[in-house]
């Protein structure tokens, strides 16, 4: 049986080319030297062109990336941030590169082993019916799913529920980094948050632009349970407070621009 998908907005008349040769796959990375080669090898089997955004890594990731790019200049591109700017900043660089180089769309996935590159074609295929295809670790139960850290799941559920209530979505996973975006969707959004709260701004921007969103199920994989969010954000309540502040700020921004959808409260 095919994996279920979930639509979150009414269909609109848009076109989304699904030829994978016109799509870019991007990986934001920061100190991922132990996963990099394996993940790149897998992505290369399912994507014609890859962009890796190195966000100021200090563990040898940058040198390894340069070696891989030199060996496959027709398949791999690299952007280096001179210092660590944040997860959202890495994705912003990927968004800009996608539009600047005329790709039809962009698939993003993390480089820490959480996402399975063989699913890239499914995301591109699903993008024929959506502006954003967002992975969900909670839409379907897979055999062998890992148990997520309790505080991360709790925050995800609370923030996802608030997004649904305030923006009119029916999301099940607000924070999954495995996504596909049409170029039109990227042009319709203005993303400025550099950190891990960037998805909250993205969802507000998507609602303001009335983008069509589909969730695609992906397995729940955690290989690094000790991954840090940075400083005080490792404390769950501090992180939740920060996420709520970013959400409020993003909603206020579209309100001031006169782009507040009827669904937003």
Automatic annotation (TrEMBL):
Presence of keyword Methyltransferase: no
Domain Glycosyltransferase 2-like residue range list: 27-187
Record has Transferase as a keyword: yes
Keyword annotations from UniProtKB, A to Z: Glycosyltransferase, Transferase
Entry GO MF terms: undecaprenyl-phosphate mannosyltransferase activity
InterPro entries xrefs: Glyco_trans_2-like, Glycosyltransferase_2, Nucleotide-diphossugar_trans
The protein's Enzyme Commission number: 2.4.1.54
Compositional bias segments (type: Polar residues): 9-22
Annotated stretches, region: Disordered: 1-22
Enzyme class: transferase
CDD domains: DPM_DPG-synthase_like (cd04179)
Endpoints of the signal sequence: none
PANTHER family xref list: RFBJ PROTEIN (PTHR48090:SF7), UNDECAPRENYL-PHOSPHATE 4-DEOXY-4-FORMAMIDO-L-ARABINOSE TRANSFERASE-RELATED (PTHR48090)
Protein name (record): Undecaprenyl-phosphate mannosyltransferase
Organism of origin: Allorhodopirellula solitaria
Source lineage: Bacteria, Pseudomonadati, Planctomycetota, Planctomycetia, Pirellulales
């Amino acid at each position: 049986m095919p994996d279920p998908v979930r639509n979150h907005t009414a269909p609109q008349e848009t076109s989304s080319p699904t030829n994978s040769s016109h799509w870019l796959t991007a990986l934001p990375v920061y100190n991922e030297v132990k996963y990099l080669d394996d993940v790149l090898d897998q992505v290369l089997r399912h994507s014609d062109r890859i962009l890796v955004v190195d966000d100021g890594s200090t563990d040898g990731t940058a040198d390894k990336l340069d070696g891989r790019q030199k060996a496959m200049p027709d398949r791999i591109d690299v952007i280096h941030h001179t210092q660590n700017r944040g997860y959202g900043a890495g994705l912003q660089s990927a968004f800009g590169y996608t539009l600047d180089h005329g790709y039809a769309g962009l698939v993003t996935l993390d480089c820490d082993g959480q996402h399975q590159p063989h699913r890239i074609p499914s995301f591109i295929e699903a993008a024929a019916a959506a502006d954003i295809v967002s992975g969900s670790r909670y839409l379907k139960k897979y055999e062998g799913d890992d148990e997520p850290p309790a505080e991360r799941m709790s925050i995800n559920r609370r923030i996802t529920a608030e997004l649904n209530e305030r923006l009119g979505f029916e999301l099940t996973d607000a924070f999954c980094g495995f996504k596909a975006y049409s170029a039109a969707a990227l042009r319709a959004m203005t993303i400025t948050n550099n950190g891990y709260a960037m998805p909250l701004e993205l969802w507000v921007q998507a609602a303001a632009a009335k983008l069509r969103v589909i969730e695609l199920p992906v397995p729940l994989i955690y290989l690094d349970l000790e991954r840090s969010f940075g400083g005080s954000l490792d404390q769950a309540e501090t992180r939740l407070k920060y996420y709520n502040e970013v959400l409020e700020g993003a909603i206020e921004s579209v309100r001031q621009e006169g782009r507040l959808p009827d669904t937003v409260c």
